[in-house]
Write a sequence for this structure.
């Protein structure tokens, strides 16, 4: 059998298989009703989501960092430095936990790798220090498998630290097994006037070393380690933005159990986030297979544009289902908005492929193959979109488009070679 004979044979068998599937589907149910029924069969129940989350959570070592310091002392900056999340999203991510604390879980409450508990109102004369201590004590007394660490934040030019020392002393007395790290922040606020950027780490300026020595002396018996950091915003134009990040991660590695410290290093290298995303995507792909196959069957109907509304409904349903898997509950209109946002120029190509149906014979096979590949790539793009949201990041349109193009190319090959 020569090459062209083999290709024609494959085309004929593929066309016959898809046409047969289309006839069976049309005989059983109207197309729109068939789509709704199929989506119902493939829906993810709350019990399934809970089981998936439980399985993934068991594999995650979680660290809880209790951030204790005055407002503007750099606590949120530590969150940004360790997670890579923008300042805007970190600000939105903290939620009231108790009267005097807020909590931020990264990447999500359901699957946290890092949990930050932030004291609020510390240093406010209207706040009762004993209430703050009592709430932190209650937090530490809870039985958990999480590794814990206290991180005290003090600005390098702030020597009014009596309240912070009082809190740290009480916590250390009752929980000596919980390590304590002192992070002295905002170094650039005391740099010499002729210095416009960060020097080599650690900064060798007398004003910095003298202040650091004094603050360390105040907390000498309370903290296991003390470090200098200066985590600024990008618009502040200090380089690097997270000055002293390596010192922070090394200190955490020394003070935390091996698994938790390794996770923090992986977070900084984006490995942990990618591995977590891959666990979700592996689960999502079982649905991509089913929806892509349905899309191929529907697209095989040899009437130009007749199946576009049904395919669109199918793909919107897929995005809604994936959103639920990632903890995002979406209405059909919201899911449709996400489809429009991430699909980009693919829609124009979809119209072009529909026109191929006017070509007798092979047009429907091409349209079916394309619809399956496009549905698959849309699902992969949605996973990236929801994964970014779950990780507290703004979805990156360029990354999503890149993933869609790559998965579309590979899916075309996959569905082109399917034989039944």
């Amino acid at each position: 059998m020569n090459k062209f004979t083999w290709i024609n044979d494959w085309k004929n068998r593929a066309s016959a298989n898809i046409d047969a599937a289309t006839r069976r589907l049309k005989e059983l149910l109207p197309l729109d009703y068939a789509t709704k029924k199929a989506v119902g069969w493939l829906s993810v129940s709350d019990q399934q989501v809970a089981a998936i989350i439980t399985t993934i959570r068991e594999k995650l070592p979680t660290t809880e960092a209790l951030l204790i310091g005055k407002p503007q002392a750099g606590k949120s900056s530590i969150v940004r430095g360790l997670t890579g999340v923008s300042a805007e999203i970190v600000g939105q991510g903290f939620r009231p936990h108790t009267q005097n604390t807020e909590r931020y879980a990264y990447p999500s409450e359901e699957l946290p790798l890092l949990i930050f508990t932030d004291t609020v109102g510390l240093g406010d004369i209207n706040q009762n220090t004993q209430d703050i201590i009592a709430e932190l004590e209650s937090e530490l007394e809870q039985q958990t498998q999480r590794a814990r660490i206290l991180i005290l934040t003090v600005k390098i030019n702030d020597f009014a630290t009596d309240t912070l020392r009082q809190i740290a002393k009480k916590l250390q007395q009752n929980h000596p097994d919980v390590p304590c790290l002192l992070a002295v922040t905002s170094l650039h606020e005391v740099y010499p006037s002729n210095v416009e950027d960060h020097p080599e780490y650690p900064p060798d300026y007398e004003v910095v070393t003298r202040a650091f020595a004094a603050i360390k002396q105040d907390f000498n018996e309370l903290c296991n380690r003390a470090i200098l950091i200066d985590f600024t915003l990008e618009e502040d134009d200090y380089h690097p933005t997270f000055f002293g990040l390596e010192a922070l991660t090394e200190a955490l590695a020394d003070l935390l159990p091996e698994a938790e410290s390794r996770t923090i290093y992986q977070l900084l290298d984006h490995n942990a986030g990618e591995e977590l995303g891959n666990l979700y995507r592996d689960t999502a792909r079982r649905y991509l297979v089913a929806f892509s196959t349905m899309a191929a069957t529907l697209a095989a109907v040899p009437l130009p544009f007749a199946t576009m509304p049904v395919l669109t409904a199918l793909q919107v349903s897929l995005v809604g289902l994936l959103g639920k898997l990632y903890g995002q509950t979406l209405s059909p209109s919201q899911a449709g908005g996400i489809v429009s946002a991430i699909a980009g120029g693919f829609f124009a190509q979809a119209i072009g492929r529909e026109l191929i149906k006017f070509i007798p014979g092979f047009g429907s096979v091409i349209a079916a193959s394309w619809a399956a590949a496009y549905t698959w790539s849309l699902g992969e793009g949605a996973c990236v979109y929801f994964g970014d949201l779950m990780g507290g990041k703004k979805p990156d349109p360029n990354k999503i488009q890149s993933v869609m193009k790559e998965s579309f190319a590979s899916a075309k090959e996959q569905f082109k070679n399917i034989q039944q």
Observations:
- The two ends are 20 Å apart (CA to CA).
- The chain has a mean pLDDT of 74.
- The chain has two domains: 13-42+272-416, 63-269.
- Residues 271-299 form the longest helix (29 residues).
